[in-house]
């Protein structure tokens, strides 16, 4: 017996709307990013940006910063090793943290 879904597009739209409007969902994810990019997240929130916009603005930056701080790029021999990786602008304070982590290794 074949089962037919009455309105798959309506279900998808409903889920999209629930996720899009769920401030609690975006906040929870954004706080994970804040663990790595506290200054950036606090600045965006202080400027009145929503949790969703703050997360979108800082997610790639937090992944990149985490990788740098973990030493993933400590022994890069050429620019080709970085090609294809997502990069994001980092502020001077973040570069200071990264350089200090490198010195501490």
UniProtKB/TrEMBL annotation:
Superkingdom is Eukaryota
Q: What is the protein name for this chain?
A: Uncharacterized protein
Organism expressing this protein natively? Larimichthys crocea
